Amino acid sequence: MLFRSLHHWCAASLRVVNLLSQMESQTHRLSALEWQAMARRGLSAELRHEERTVRQQMAEVFTELAGQIDARELAGVRHGFRNYTLAIDEEFRLLDANQFAEALRLDEERVDPAHDGLIELIAQAQARYQTWSQWIVMATNFGSFAILFAAVLAMAILFARSERLRRVRQVLLVEQAMLRKSEERFRAMANTVPDMLYSNRPDGSC
Questions:
Q1: pLDDT per residue as tens digits for the range 61-74
Q2: Sign of the dihedral defined by the CA atoms of residues 136, 139, 141, 143, in that order
Q3: Spatial distance between the Cα atoms of 136 and 8, rounded to a whole number of angstroms
């Protein structure tokens, strides 16, 4: 039961790491879309569609993470993502209004720092759950080794007891053989003596 739980926790931690990696990839993808919009000085219909797709996928990742990650840690990452998307939305609004200089200044002052902050939050969460999963793997391996060691020790104890019983049995067999030989010698001696044997008591009576 314990090792089954450890394997479950390990799989859950690895799943969290995978989801956070997906979130990191989507964040970089969103950053690339934002960069393309700045390079074109506007957001095309294609870029808008792709940007909505990225946000939808991020929402799905957040939904799955909700049941597997620490609530405070998830709230921190969610807050970082919200700050980033709000900054991007404002940048896109400025681009739509043909205010490129203001959009460029916003990109440097808010968008890029928000992006870097979000990536850092994701990386920190990844590191924690990666370390946790590694510790679980080590604990599982140690537990398996402990079980194997216990099994070997039990077998050694059983073997030692069996060997001791075998030696005791051999001693008993030797003693029984010696007793039989002694009885046979006594019978042989009694059968060959012509006269009857008597045993006297201390008072001289037979």
A1: 999 998 788 888 88
A2: negative
A3: 10
Structure tokens at 120: 């850092």
Helix (H/G/I), strand (E/B), else coil: 69: coil
Residue 42: closest CA among 85, 86, 91 = 91
Residue closest to 190 by CA, chosen among 179, 198, 202:
198
Separation CA 174–CA 187 (nearest Å) = 20
Provide CB contacts within 8 A for 90, sequence distance 6+: 106, 110
pTM for the complete prediction? 0.60
pLDDT at 187: 53
Q: How far apart are CA 155 and CA 148, in angstroms?
A: 11
Exposed, middle or buried by CB within 10 Å (0-12, 13-18, 19+), for 140? middle
* Closest of 114, 122, 121, 117 to residue 20, by C-alpha: 122
Token pair of 194, please?
A: 């012509």
Tokens linked to 63: 């939904």
Which residue intervals of 97-111 are DSSP H helices? 100-106
Nearest to 65 by CA among 116, 114, 13: 13
State both tokens at 95.
Answer: 């681009």
